[in-house]
Amino acid sequence: MMTTSRKNDPLEPAGPGCDVVTVPARQGLEAVDILRRGAGEAVGPVLHDGGCDTLGFLVPPGTAAAWDVPGSVCTETDGRGICLTPDRSAEGSDWLVPPGEADLATDPAVLREALGQAQRMIEAADSCS
Question: What is the reported pTM?
């Protein structure tokens, strides 16, 4: 869980509210590639954890209430614990797609489709082994 903010106070909002969709790194990296190949800038800031086990996509606030994609979790942050500056990230993580190089947040519908496509690609690749 991301716990640092600009003031290192997890209770102090660090910026605009957002939710975070967390997915396994392999699926997330495929989804980032899919989003970047799509028309326009479809991917917002993306965090990866220190062990590179998961990726976290910043999505608009309220996404968590309706998120139901298997294999992923969407967490409400209310802006707490997220520092939206490219040179700072949450403790134990780093930016894969830093703020400033991306839209403010990834569109949840576009992310849902990219994650589904990524999962199908992974399953196809694994079945060929």
Answer: 0.79
